[in-house]
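Thread: "does anyone have the structure for this chain?"

Original post by V.I.:
We have the sequence but no experimental structure in hand. Need at least a predicted one for the grant figures.
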Amino acid sequence: MSHATSLPCSLLPSISLVTSHDRIVGEEWKTRSFVGMPLCSFYASISLPVAKPHSLPSSKPPSVATPTTPTSAVAAAALSLNLPELPSRVKDRILSLELMGVDYGRALALNPALRDAAPESIHAVVTFLQSRGLHFKDLGRVFGMCPSLLTASVRADLRPIFAFLTDDLGVPDSAYRRVIVKCPRVLASSVRDQLRPALLYLRRLGFRDARALAFQDPILLVSSVERTMIPKLEFLAGLGMSRDDTVAMVLRCPALFTFSIERNYKPKFEYLVSEIGGGIDDIKAFPQYFTFSLDKRIAPRHRAAAEAGVSFTLPDMLKATDDEFRELLDKERELQKHAA
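Reply from O.Q.:
Generated one for you, tokens below.
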């Protein structure tokens, strides 16, 4: 049994290792606004469940229970769990991240600088991101994917990114969250070294609507031009297409830039040629072919069609739902029976 107790700020660090954000009473913490709130007020504003210590059998007659104070509850819980002695600032930092849903151990492994980060500096980043429209419930995923943000400089690292979203991509203030939630890595990318060079390259290819790019395919902005985009265009061209054809394909299906050459392009193209009997013209007409799973969609449906003695175009075979595909097969079988 546990008691939900509002703890003073000075006591919260002592239970940071045994509390969990998903044990906080209700889901209130996910939706509340903590913008501008000092760390002490932030922690103290949340009711944390404190484990009631196990009591030993006693021969004394039962007495009237007295209310357990937060101090005694926390101290008893700490003693009963034999918590290690850690500096209060370390515990404070761990608690702040766990409340946001961030795995401190993993974040520290990916960002060793976090070990010496002051809770106040983390709070400054949190406050800034919330002031730009992010919700508290978003922070666990954002920091989990990009723990480097926890030690970022608001002035040097984060402000330039939001300026880029507005000035270069035309994203209004009210839509910052939409872009960041779709691709948190945008926040961890350099405007000068990554975001702007990627945008300029994509514009040269023919991506004219920068705002649509930000909303629909922001992952392209964090993709390396030299290591990711150019090699994939070269591979597609090497299949026998002109550069204009390959550019037209990625403009129709920008996700092509996100696929692996070895794990996606090569096996799927080989299957298309050797098993389906297709070729370059099929890819040019339907570049979305590469977006479907070879093992779960392409091969099973092709085998089912072959066993039924029917053939489909790639769009008809792959875009249909499972039920629609079965109906197509049944319809083709009926047509074959009548034709016979």
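V.I.: this helps a lot. The longest strand covers residues 2-6.
O.Q.: and The first helix runs from residue 28 to 31.
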